[in-house]
Amino acid sequence: MPGPSASLKCIDCGVLLPPDPRVYACNRCGGLLDVQLSWDSVPALSWGLFLSRPRGVWRYRELLPADPSLAVSLGEGGTPLLESPRLARWVGVSRLYLKYEGANPTGSFKDRGMTVGVTKALEAGARMVCCASTGNTSASMAAYAARAGLDAVVFLPRHGVALGKLAQAALHGARLVEVDGGFDQALRAVVEVCRRAPIYLLNSVNPWRLEGQKTGAYELAEELREGFDLLALPVGNCGNIAAYWKGFSELHEAGLIRWRPRLLGVQAEGAAPLVQMLRSGSDTLVPVREPRSIATAIRIGHPASWKKARRAILESRGSAVAVSDREILEAQWAIARLAGLGVEPAGAASVAGLRRSVELGETGADTTAVAVLTGHALKDPDAAQMAPLSRITLEAFLRELPAR
Fold it and tell me: Quick one: how many helices (H) and strands (E) in the chain?
C-alpha cells in the first residue's frame, strides 16, 4: 500500500503545488516548501496500529508520503529514550529524558530523513544524489545511496569537517567535492548544480527528507504518552526542529495526542543567527558571515530553513538560546559521566542550552524536559579527546587503595 497522498505548500506565499519530489522551492516566489498530507488519504490511526509493528521510521508509514514498498532502510529510528536523574540535577530540571539519536545506523539523526529522502529519489527515477555537508548528512546520504545502488556526491567545505564523518562518506563510496568557504557556500554550490543536472538534492531544503525526521516526534509521543513540557534541540540548518514540530502537530491533528511541547532551539554562540533574531524580536535573519564553533554540525551562519524553525518555535511558545563552546564541552562531559552516553559536541548542545535556559530563569526547576542528542561521540573523536584525563601510575594507584 503506497503512502498517503500529499501536496507541497509554500511557507511564504501559500501557493499549493503538485507533489513533485524534484521540486525544492516555490516556483512563484522561491520560498521553502512544506509537505501537506491529504488527511482524506490517511486511514484511521491508533497507537495500537503502530505498536503492532517493529520499531523504526517505517512503523508510521501511514503518515509518510512515500511508497513503503520502495523503502531504502538500514533499520533507522526506534532510538533509545533514557531518563537521567543525575543529569537532570546537573541541568536543574525535575525530570530529564535523553533521545539518543547516535544509535541510528550511521550515528546521527540524519538517517531518519535519509531513509525517506532516498526512497523519494528512487520514486523520481534518480541515479545520482548529492548534498552539501559538514559531516553527518554526507555520511548518512552516502550509506543510503549505497544501499539503494545510487551514486553519491558530497560538496563539503575545504576545511573544518570532522574526520570521523568524512571517513564515513568516503567508506560508502561518495565522491567528495571541496568548496572554498564554509557550509553556506557549499550549499549554494550544490543547489546550483542540481538546477543544471539531473541530480537529486538531499539537503534539508528538500521537504521530503524532513518527513522522515518528524518521526522522532512520533516516537517521543508514543513513549511519553501523557506529554512533557519542553523539547531541547540543537539547531544548525534549522530543518530538524521544524520537522519535530510538524510531527507533533500531525499527531495532534490526528487526535493521537492532546498536547504539544514547547521547543527550545539551541545554537552555538559563534553561529547563532536564529537566536539573535528571535531574542531581538525581529522577523529578519542576519547571517553570520564567518560562523565559528567546536560543534561542526551546527556551525552554520545562514541556515536555509530558518523560516520554518522560527515558525515552529513561535507556534510552540518556545524560545532559543546560544551557548559557548565551553558550555557545549562541559555538557558533553556531563552527559558521558552522568548518563553514560557519548555524543558529539553538536549533540550535547541541547543539554547545554537547557542548562543555560534554567540559569536565565526561562525554564523552571519543575520542568519535565527531553533533550535530543543528535550524534554519536565517535562522529568527532578529536573533540572527545579534549575531555579531562585522569591518568596516574600503577604505583600511585596502589598507594590510594583503601585498606581491607
Answer: 15, 13
